[in-house]
């Protein structure tokens, strides 16, 4: 069914139409949330919050922009909130972030490979830590632009729209992010 | 293009965000500048290192997210529109079988409204069947209770409104209304009564979407002993896998020795594969074995 038809039906309260809309975009939203927030629990929360908000405000969608852009505006806001909250949380020592998802751990292939080449593994781990540090050093907005451009393959123009900014502003954000990476990782690669 | 603007273009080139002309002059510059070529190779290596770091959602997570969203949406969508609360039932009464319907409804103590009176639509009458008694003549005697609907408007923090919301959360027969009242209350400052109501809903509400909402609202209290007790109970007793998974997530916010036994018990009897995996992960996070030995 055509998307506009689905949206109109969902706006009138058709639950199946809404579900079809969710299923058209939720993979992408979950990917963003998982890669940004890096924990299954937080990604789950961000997913639920995003689509509940979309559900509640769908009647406000006026077809004056791309639906995907509109939806990502909601999703990125939810994720940015989580990132900001987390920055505050980090300062409390009691909370331990669990980084490893169960599936990564169950999949023991990388470990086998790591044992075969301990030196390379050490280097990789150091690089990983360095990347982690530089990503945390980005502002929430830089982090989001970088996420959408580098990992999700969004055009800068669409990113600007989703974040309520111009393409030029998105480009500046991206530029600052990549500059910081280069400064932090340049001697490593 | 000079070296400085070439360097600025590295990432934009890799992302395909340069115009055709910019791309051309970027490539022209690289061809003639060994320094930029080397730096550009480094930039590519950074991109690859970043690619390798992508964290993809584990496959079962999407299914879990969809399932729980549906639960939450079902109860959200079930919220009665304001007009339905007034008039929703009355058309049934004007059907030919109205009299029969009336008796049947009475057994469930459901309520309906009388036909709206145009002169007084803001104050409709609500009738509730209290009692029905068949008579020997073949007729039936119905005892109804008429109540006038009233409107109260106030801040959700006002005591009277607050009480009504608490009562609606606990007692309404309408899952949508229970969920909506709970949503409003959850945005209010914490109170023991609210907590008690949420715990009650988590344990007793027949609708899994409402129970899931109660869990969401209990997040801020997740380290309190009574809440943890209720979570443990839900973990073992709730028949909905979405709720069991959420209960584990909340319990794991504070890792306690006592949870090991609970999780080990659950892992033995768990029928849902996602919950089982979540349990195993939790046990590993606590450095405990998955089996009981
Ligand atoms: Zn140069």
Gist of the model:
The complex is a heterodimer of chains A (189) and B (293). Chain A is mostly helical and 189 residues long.
> What oligomeric state best describes the polypeptide chains here?
heterodimer
Rounded mean pLDDT score of chain A: 83
CATH architecture of the largest domain in chain A: Orthogonal Bundle
Shape of chain A: elongated
Bound molecules: zinc ion
Question: Regarding CATH, which class of the largest domain in chain A?
Answer: Mainly Alpha
Helical percentage of chain B: 55-70%
What sequence of helices (H) and strands (E) makes up the elements of chain B? Answer: HHHHHHHEEEHHHHHHHH
CATH superfamily of the largest domain in chain A: RNA polymerase sigma factor, region 2, helix turn helix motif
Write up what this structure looks like.
The complex is a heterodimer of chains A (189) and B (293). Chain A is mostly helical and 189 residues long. Chain A folds into 2 domains: 1-99, Rna Polymerase Sigma Factor, Chain: A, CATH 1.10.1740; 111-189, Orthogonal Bundle (Arc Repressor Mutant, subunit A), CATH 1.10.10. Chain A contains 10 helices and no strands. In chain A, α7 (118-137) runs antiparallel to α10 and α9 crosses α10. The longest helix of chain A has 24 residues, at 67-90. The N and C termini of chain A lie far apart (48 Å). Residues 91-114 of chain A have low confidence and may be disordered. Among the domains of chain B are: 3-53, no CATH class; 59-113. In chain B, strands 1-2-3 form a 3-stranded antiparallel β-sheet. Chain B has 293 residues and is mainly α. Chain B is 62% helix and 8% strand. Chain B is built from 15 helices and 3 strands. Chain B is elongated and about 105 Å long. Classes of the chains: A mainly alpha (189), B mainly alpha (293). Chains A and B meet through α2, α3, α5, α7 and α8 of A and α1, α3, α4 and α15 of B.
